[in-house]
Queue: 2 jobs
Job 1
Amino acid sequence: MKPKKSAPGEMSAATSRPARTPEAQENYMINLTMKLVERRLLEGTASSAETTHFLKLATSKNELEKTKLEEENKLLRAKTETLQNAKHSEEMYEKAIAAMKKYNGLGEDDEYDGVDIDTQYPSLFNDFSGSGMAWK
């Protein structure tokens, strides 16, 4: 028996090649379902659930929900980027403080290892020898 021929532009299940990824398989199944429902709508045999589904897609409420989801995704991406930038800034501050300590002779590579700069020299970062200038 010969396989059923499909109309031009349609993919038949027997002649299509298998999906390579789960996403491609999902898209293929969605495409088949959409074509089936389209045919049922044109023939007048679509169920009330199928008809209602596509009526809901046409409402403005659905468009607002879609826009809201897109904006929430943008917000999540922005929050993620902010957290990554904060982590990068913290690393840069730590490197800058380490460089200042090393420059002042209190770095890790010097003979002063183990000296706590805050307890040994409390006024070092608070006041410049009575000049009235302070670190902030």
Note: The first helix runs from residue 22 to 43.
Job 2
Amino acid sequence: MTGKERILTALKVEQPDRVPLYIHGINEAPIIGIGRHLTDGLPQSTQFHEMNDAEKMKLVDTLFLIHENFGVDGFTSFEIGHEIEIDEKHVQDDWGIVYRRSPHGLPVAKGHPVKVKQDLDQFQAPEPKQEHLLLLELARDRFGGKKALFWLMRGAFVRSWRLMGMENLMIQLYTDPEFVQRVAALVTDYSLKQLDMLANAGLDVLVVEDDIANTHAPLISPDHFKQHIHPFNRQLVDRAHDLGLKVVRHSDGNLWSLLDLLVATGYDGLNPLEPQAGMTLKKVKQHWGDKICLLGNIDCMELLPDGTTEQVEAAVQEAIEDAGAGGGYILCSSNSLHPAVNPENCIAMFEATKKYGAYSVGQKELPRGKPRGINEG
């Protein structure tokens, strides 16, 4: 099977030739750290905005090399070129949202242009642009249909709170829910337009990236979620399916109280199954593993930064044993490969997936062993 075939088979909750391997997201530092095993001449800086054009292209090429050399089955793309620099610490996107750069990962939204209804009345939403799809187009041309192409699209909750501010959104849910609905409709309209462009560009899998929970519970009540967020994300799911795409729902945190609704929505996959939030892989597999593909759960908070390669291998083996039987599991980390992960542990995760993830013809269960946990010798 090609990587694309492997991913799409798993997303149908069917069994491919082996458990697919995927990188949901990866920052510059681990690209460089892993890339040192594959190529020379890598950038000295670990901040993309500090690199010159040649260094940026070298970084992208190295990311492609990582997927090719370690047999990663799917490639993640996202918008690029939609931000302008305000100063060395801040950027502004084409929605007018201001972000503060962070050395620890993605920039953090700090300036919110739509705080009250009057702002919305005067607000002009941007139109999606083909040039912002450059990374997807480069990956499509590089991999030639052999790897599944994923796209990270912010959902209604994240796009709305970035426009409005998180605290303000929470207040408006109670004081002016109609305002919240208008903002959600605005951002969803943009996403639907972009979705058509993505399908035409060769996309295989849409990731509705809409973090809605912390490690204890959802950030808003289930009723508010059902009324003000879910209907808009449902439009993305339905439209993507109409276009022949698969759809993965991404949210950090404890999703147990929302899982029935998410599964019923028709998502093909659920990611990233954060272990620190109680998203125990074996338990989720037992409850919903016949209805939705599971992606993730390899701990990126403690194990990948601070564990040993042997412990990473054991965790991969355990995850495959817990969720791989019969298909419907794609192995990846419990969130992005961020600047604190150990590149050697990332490589150990890649290699262990191929070591333990192969299915035999007619096999419905994978071989079992006794893995060692992070605290074991």
Note: The two ends are 36 Å apart (CA to CA).
